Q: What sequence folds into this?
């Protein structure tokens, strides 16, 4: 670590705002279990001028999938689930219409065949856990589970989360499970899948992507996996009911310090400050690519997920995480990203409020921030 790490990363943050079009940003990094970078800049709400501070929380969309996957891994650690057992073993209703053989491994790796949202979904219905899991159970799979990829942009959270809920001896709501089994043991105070109402004033306002952004492949299924009526825009994800609902595939809200602390636990082999959530042997598998890397009809690119439910460098949107193949984490719609580097024992989170397409490394305004973190902390990759 270098003594001026915050200054190096702050300069990159200021450049992203002044020259890269960013509006509000937070960056935090834990190295060897200690907070080593903690900076922020810009505006949290462009309509009021409210500035970003360390306590501002941001919608992080799919980054919450890393937390959701970890909840399932905790259940596996306790012997309550087995990755290669069908989801229907734990959730019998899910076995309808040919989904009976789809395993937890298939769900973690986006190969269980239910990537699309229900046709009738609305923001209100998306907030209704029972309605959503009922829809997941009643869906016909797009393909035989386990035979190909179909990125579960939103649906991942309800499939994985419902298995955790059903195998929890305390039968807690999934958002409560995250708080009591992940956040509280690790001393994480600002990470949620469904915020308390009193947190709402701290949430940054999203800057939506421009309507003329580069289009996706004409045959992409993304418009059905993330329908416009529940899209990743301020009109939807700025609603109090949506922010307070548990939507654990797409609606995480956190600050960078809390996200980095979570990824620090993973970077340190499942343990932080003497609290162990997962075994080192289990975490060691989380960066193992899931073969084969077949074409994903939702993303429109080959799927580059891991067997643990994470993303790796080279996945769309993971550019700021660098090139080290041992790194794993998760990115989100709009560019937010967090990752764990087990080689360096480094956990990083970059949150922001200006939505932009994944694009190339050169187009990603957060990539230089990732580079600055590695430079400041003398980390390869």
A:
């Amino acid at each position: 670590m270098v003594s001026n790490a915050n200054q190096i990363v702050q300069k990159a943050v200021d450049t992203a705002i002044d020259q890269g079009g960013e509006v509000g940003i937070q960056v935090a990094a834990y190295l060897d279990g200690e907070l080593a970078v903690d900076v922020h800049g810009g505006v949290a709400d462009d309509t009021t001028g409210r500035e970003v501070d360390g306590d501002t929380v941001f919608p992080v969309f799919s980054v919450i999938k890393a937390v959701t996957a970890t909840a399932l891994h905790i259940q596996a650690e306790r012997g309550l689930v087995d990755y290669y057992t069908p989801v229907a073993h734990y959730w019998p209703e899910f076995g309808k219409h040919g989904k009976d053989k789809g395993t937890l491994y298939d769900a973690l790796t986006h190969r269980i065949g239910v990537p699309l949202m229900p046709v009738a979904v609305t923001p209100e219905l998306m907030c209704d856990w029972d309605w959503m899991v009922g829809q997941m159970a009643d869906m016909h799979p797009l393909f035989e589970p386990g035979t190909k990829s179909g990125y579960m942009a939103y649906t991942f959270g309800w499939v994985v989360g419902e298995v955790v809920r059903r195998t929890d001896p305390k039968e807690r709501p999934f958002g409560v499970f995250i708080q009591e089994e992940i956040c509280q043991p690790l001393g994480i105070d600002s990470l949620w899948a469904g915020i308390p109402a009193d947190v709402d004033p701290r949430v940054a306002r999203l800057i939506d992507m421009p309507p003329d952004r580069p289009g996706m492949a004409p045959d992409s299924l993304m418009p059905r996996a993330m329908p416009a009526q529940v899209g990743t825009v301020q009109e939807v994800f700025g609603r109090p009911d949506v922010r307070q609902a548990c939507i654990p595939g797409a609606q995480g809200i956190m600050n960078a310090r809390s996200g980095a602390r979570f990824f620090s636990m993973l970077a340190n082999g499942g343990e932080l400050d003497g609290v162990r959530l997962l075994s080192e042997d289990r975490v060691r598998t989380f960066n193992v690519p899931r073969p084969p890397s077949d074409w994903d009809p939702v993303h429109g690119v080959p799927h580059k997920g891991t067997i643990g439910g994470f993303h790796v460098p080279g996945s769309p949107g993971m550019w700021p995480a660098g090139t080290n193949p041992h790194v794993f984490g998760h990115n989100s719609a709009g560019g937010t990203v967090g990752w764990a580097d087990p080689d360096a024992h480094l956990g990083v989170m970059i949150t922001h409020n200006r939505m932009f397409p994944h694009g190339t490394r050169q187009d990603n305004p957060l990539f230089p921030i990732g580079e600055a973190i590695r430079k400041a902390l003398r980390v390869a990759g």
